Amino acid sequence: MSENRALIESTLARRYAREKRFQWYGKLAISAGILFLGFLLATTVGNAYTALQQTYIGLEINLTEDDFDGDLTSKSLAQASYGKIIKRSLLEKFPQVSKRKEKKALYKLISTGAEYDLRDKVVANPELIGQSRIFWLLADDEVDVFMKGRIDRNVDEGSRRLKDNTIGWVDQLSAQDLIEKRFNKPFFTNGDSRDPEQAGILGAAMGSIYTILVTMLLAFPIGVAAAVYLQEFAPKNRITDVIEVNINNLAAVPSIIFGLLGLAIFINYFGLPRSIPLVGGLVLALMTLPTIIISSRAALASVPPSIREAALGIGSSPVQMVLHHVIPLAMPGMLTGAIIGFARALGETAPLLVIGMVAFIVDIPGGPMDPATVLPVQIYLWADSPERAFVEKTSAAIIVLLLFLIAVNVLIVIMRRKLERRW
């Protein structure tokens, strides 16, 4: 008896030791996951926070009537050569610059898009003509990167893109308090641009909003209706078995296949325009449907049979039983599946590349039929750009995408909590 007890106790000790080791393995795995995630977020935020500021140069500009040929109509003001006005003001600010090569370098202090900003200010306020005042204009991306400390002035001139004469002009402007970093409003109000200092995410953000709205309006009601029919009304035969198997298989199909399907059907067959949120939403809705159907069926199956029996027992028809009793109880689970599907759709890039949403689009879309891109594709485009200033723009766009994803998930979670019922 004592020998058996000793054997059992030694066995228990080994089992307890293995259990403790297993628990430690789980804790280590969780810690490693949190560590990697924290490193990823820290790296992204570290590159992104500088995108919240942009360098501006204060340039004294004298707007004369001669610059507009004496014609001060709105059309003349809009068509004037503001680039020449900025270049003339730069030469007046740095009169020592005379050589052609130095002039070209001097002109690069100011963003090429600054002339349009100046035009908008003059058109909005024609009283500026005849005055000499300081206008704060966007600096070139290389100047901005230098001001943010990402270009080392101590490195040999041949190994950096910003030359010594340019750094000297920046130092002169800095000594006169004519160069400073301000909140980067264009990043949140502009569309895409070839110039990093002018590029913004508003166009991609609006494209994502329109695309995900089309996806939600199509995928959720169709997915729920299909799940209700298959779970509650469809007869159990070979046809429904084939449908269920295909739905499960579609959930694992690579997303780019749905892009090719959208290209073949919606664009080539139906003739819808490329690169519009409507087509993007249709493609993502097709991709999201299997996930919503599968999760909705699981939610419907989790409703106790007693609910159905009680509803039928008080005289409800099968349709009334499903609509008034089963679906309200299953709705939280359905919304959970919707969260998973929409989160995947919001971060997809491959199917949208196939249908042309990778196009370079500057204008802000005003609706689902306007050409647009989406945030994941915008991140892809910026990450592939050679300019160093796009690094911080890419990281900032990633943060915006994560916040957008969190906002959509929070909205659906709130809806799920409000619809949740306990039995």
Structure description:
- By secondary structure, the protein is mainly alpha-helical.
- Helix content is 65%, strand content 5%.
- The protein has 2 domains: 53-183, no CATH class; 202-419, MetI-like fold, CATH 1.10.3720.
- It contains 17 helices and 3 strands.
- A 3-stranded antiparallel β-sheet has the order 2-1-3.
- Helix 1 (2-48) packs across helix 17 (389-419) and helix 16 runs antiparallel to helix 17 (389-419).
- It is extended, with a radius of gyration of 31 Å.
- The relative contact order is 0.10.
- The mean pLDDT is 87.
Please list the strands of the largest sheet in the order they lie side by side.
2-1-3
Reported by name, the CATH topology of the largest domain is: MetI-like fold
Question: Total helix count?
Answer: 17
Question: Which CATH architecture of the largest domain would you pick?
Answer: Orthogonal Bundle
Give me the oligomer status.
single chain
End-to-end gap: 51 Å
> Helical residue percent?
55-70%
Report the order of strands and helices: HEHHHHEHHEHHHHHHHHHH
- Mean pLDDT across all residues, rounded? 87
User: Helices and strands: which structural class?
Assistant: mainly alpha
